[in-house]
């Protein structure tokens, strides 16, 4: 995270309000390039597809587009973002268990539609049958076991005969082909999990395709680069991008070494948190300090929903930027949110000098933060971009009463 001075924070919050999200574009770009170059240098037909759900802020999505990334969307709403910022369908991957009607526009437009289940497959087949003069291609999301500690609910079961049944259904439609396979398994960020993913997906491609598929999409689930204080909470077992790229792509290099370049599959991954997590900071201010039955609390002008679920699982990296004059020593204090929820806790266990008016900057809040913030009790705050020279621009204005209540009937 950036190290903020009090002058800097005062300047930002006077102009854009507190709390405030600060996206750091230049650091984001450097990280994106490092990640992408690492993967492409091993397997040139690697294609990054940015997970919109992680953070669909259009400014960030546009940056990804200029850097050559595809858009990975899971709803019509996200698809609209990608289209508005200028993506052609063929650069959009539409995933997810429940797709909107626009998924068929994407299919008709030659985009990558990864079908999750048989009911969706039947809809796709109807679309192909209703357009007999057009040729259609889809991907199938497969449900595989890569050693994770749970059974995933997504995709078509690759164990048993479900997957061959899906292939047979498609074979019977003259203008529809399965062009690729997709998988995504959450909570599996280890190198071994990625080796398993690559191995199983290559085996499935060999089993179900006579020639190499057009693409193999391996979803996501890699650790981001992060502050040491956070890494230690993951047991310091954070693989580097190089290690991930080797684990995932060397099996493809080996498998397709005798295949001409044009016929090798495009290998897609869909990073979200890996790209964006470390590059949004969040500034909040302390509005009250209180003690209840011996326990101290600092009440903030923001809450846990601003930061996303990560703050309930780990202690985020923080920076205290002192402003208040009436400073006192606190011990094991909790930074708690403005909501009326008992469990709205943003950070626990801070000890040191503190005052009302001080700012707390939370790092690593790029993923599932502003996009997951409900209008619960209050609308959301603004987001700015701050470049390496400290130049700023507004990329999301403060939400208003009308933004929240415009949909209700008074
Ligand atoms: C299909 C799919 N792709 C990509 C992602 C992004 O994963 P991550 O944030 O771990 O990079 C997710 C997250 O749930 C997902 O479901």
DSSP helix fraction: 25-40%
Largest sheet: 9 strands, mixed
* Oligomeric state of shown chains: single chain
> Radius of gyration from the CA trace?
23 Å
CATH class group of the largest domain:
Alpha Beta
Mean pLDDT: 96
What's the shape?
elongated
Task: State the CATH superfamily name of the largest domain.
Answer: Alanine racemase
Strand content: 15-25%
CATH architecture descriptor of the largest domain: Alpha-Beta Barrel
Structure, explained:
The chain has helices spanning 6-16, 25-42, 58-66, 76-84, 102-108, 118-130, 162-171, 191-208, 228-231, 241-255, 273-276, 304-307, 310-313, 401-405, and strands at 20-23, 46-51, 70-73, 92-94, 112-115, 136-143, 156-157, 176-182, 215-217, 266-269, 280-292, 295-300, 318-321, 328-336, 345-354, 359-362, 382-386, 392-396. The protein is an alpha/beta fold. The protein folds into two domains: 6-22 and 278-405, Lyase, Ornithine Decarboxylase, Chain A, domain 1 (Beta Barrel); 25-277, Alanine racemase (TIM Barrel, Alpha-Beta Barrel). The strands form two sheets. Strands 1, 11, 12, 13, 14, 15, 16, 17 and 18 form a nine-stranded mixed β-sheet that branches. α2 (25-42) packs parallel to α10. It starts with 5 loop residues before the first helix and ends in a 5-residue tail after the last helix. The model has no long low-confidence stretch (mean pLDDT 96). Bound molecules: pyridoxal-5'-phosphate. Pyridoxal-5'-phosphate (PLP) binds at residues 51, 54, 72, 95, 184, 186, 219-221, 270-274, 367.
